[in-house]
Amino acid sequence: MTPQEAHHDQQSITAPSGHEHAWCVESSHPTSTGRVLYVHCSRCGVRRVDLQEHTLVPPVALSRELPGSLLLAELAAGADSIHGA
Ligand SMILES: [Zn+2]
Question: Which residues neighbour ligand 1 (ion) by CB within 5 Å?
Answer without folding.
Answer: 21, 41, 43-44
